[in-house]
């Protein structure tokens, strides 16, 4: 399993320079195309971004999507972590449940979304259920693998020290499982927000996905890019300001043990 250490993360200067090079690459492509209606440049998109922000539409739609992402993420992480721990801990349960996990892992997200809308209705509850189901299986597999990698010697040590269940959870289970939870969280953020956009695209009346669908029908490419890049920017902040820092923190003990 790959670990993200502090020295592996880009510094602030490198991060913004990398984004700057991306902007130059984008501007160069837009210049070569020379057709703002097909590929608007950064300046054209910035103008639309400003107008959408001032009107209040962009912040409102971003907030709606972000709330769906947060709720779905929390539910998927909670359910996936619980069932993943049970799968890794109890082999008999894993043998019976493994086909179910495989089914949900390979069931296309679009199918689950459509089925949830058909069975539950075009409402918020169906949207959250669809996104949560799509992500839970991935969390379960990651946590299951983490439980299977537990050091047996630590279990023996806990038995000799007569640690209570609470002490085992705090001092043995959570420290060993934390890096795997960080991996599940990072993958979850990367996957869930994309699925939320599809959910909004297909059956919601607000959110970033709804706006992309609306402007797609009107062939307003600059507006599509504004809403897409705005939420990508939010996810970049979450990834670099929170997820990577937390992952580095929870894997620090492994780095120190290797020195």
- Write the CATH fold name: MetI-like fold
| Percentage of β-strand residues | under 5%
Output mean pLDDT. Answer: 81
Task: Let me know the CATH homologous superfamily.
Answer: MetI-like
Overall SS class? mainly alpha
Name the helix and strand elements from N-terminus to C-terminus, one letter apiece: HHHHHHHHHHH
Strand-helix topology:
Elements: H1 12-33, H2 42-55, H3 57-89, H4 91-106, H5 109-120, H6 124-148, H7 152-161, H8 165-203, H9 208-217, H10 221-250, H11 252-258
Report on the structure:
By secondary structure, the chain is mainly alpha-helical. It has a single domain (52-258), classed as MetI-like (MetI-like fold, Orthogonal Bundle). Helices cover 84% and strands 0% of the residues. The protein has helices spanning 12-33, 42-55, 57-89, 91-106, 109-120, 124-148, 152-161, 165-203, 208-217, 221-250, 252-258. It is globular and about 70 Å long.
What's the short story on this structure?
With 259 residues, this protein is mostly helical. It has helices at residues 12-33, 42-55, 57-89, 91-106, 109-120, 124-148, 152-161, 165-203, 208-217, 221-250, 252-258.
Considering the chains and any ligands shown, give keywords for the structure.
259 residues; mainly alpha; MetI-like fold; 11 helices; 84% helix; globular
């Amino acid at each position: 399993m790959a670990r993200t250490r502090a020295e592996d993360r880009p510094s602030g200067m490198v991060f913004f320079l990398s984004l700057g090079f991306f902007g130059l690459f984008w501007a160069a492509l837009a210049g070569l195309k020379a057709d703002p209606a097909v590929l608007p440049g950064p300046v054209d998109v910035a103008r639309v971004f400003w107008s959408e922000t001032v009107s209040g539409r962009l912040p409102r739609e971003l907030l709606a999507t972000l709330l769906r992402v947060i709720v779905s993420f929390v539910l998927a992480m909670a359910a996936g972590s619980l069932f993943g721990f049970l799968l890794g801990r109890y082999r008999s349960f894993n043998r019976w449940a493994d086909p179910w996990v495989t089914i949900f892992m390979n069931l296309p997200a679009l199918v689950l979304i459509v089925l949830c809308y058909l069975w539950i209705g075009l409402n918020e509850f169906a949207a959250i259920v669809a996104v949560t189901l799509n992500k839970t299986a991935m969390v379960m597999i990651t946590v299951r693998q983490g439980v299977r990698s537990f050091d047996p010697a630590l279990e023996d040590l806990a038995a000799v020290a007569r640690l209570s269940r609470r002490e085992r959870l705090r001092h043995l289970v959570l420290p060993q499982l934390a890096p795997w939870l960080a991996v599940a969280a990072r993958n979850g953020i990367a996957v869930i927000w994309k699925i939320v956009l599809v959910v909004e695209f297909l059956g919601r009346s607000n959110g970033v996905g709804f706006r992309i669908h609306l402007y797609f029908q009107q062939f307003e490419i600059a507006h599509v890019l504004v809403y897409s890049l705005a939420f990508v920017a939010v996810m970049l902040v979450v990834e670099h300001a929170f997820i990577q820092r937390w992952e580095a923190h929870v894997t620090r003990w492994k780095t120190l043990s290797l020195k």
